[in-house]
Amino acid sequence: VILFGADIKLAGSLSLMISLPTMIVGFSRYINADAFLILKQERTLFVWMVIGSVIGAAIGGLMVGLFPLKALMTLLGVI
């Protein structure tokens, strides 16, 4: 954002596009390691975490237009 002067929303979207292939490869390795057995045992917890993540992402996506650009840049700089 600072180096290239890109819009904060564009930078966030591009960040996701860059990290998505890494997440896909990690997920495929996770599947091959038979690590899903714990998810079967903790299915209720897993379902609640998925529901919370989807709702949180949707609310965050809707709220991003409510905050001024300077506030978003400051908040993301602190994080």
UniProtKB/TrEMBL annotation:
Record's keyword annotation contains Transmembrane helix: yes
Keywords: Membrane, Transmembrane, Transmembrane helix
Annotated transmembrane regions: 12-33, 45-67
Stated name of the protein: Permease
Source organism of the structure: human gut metagenome
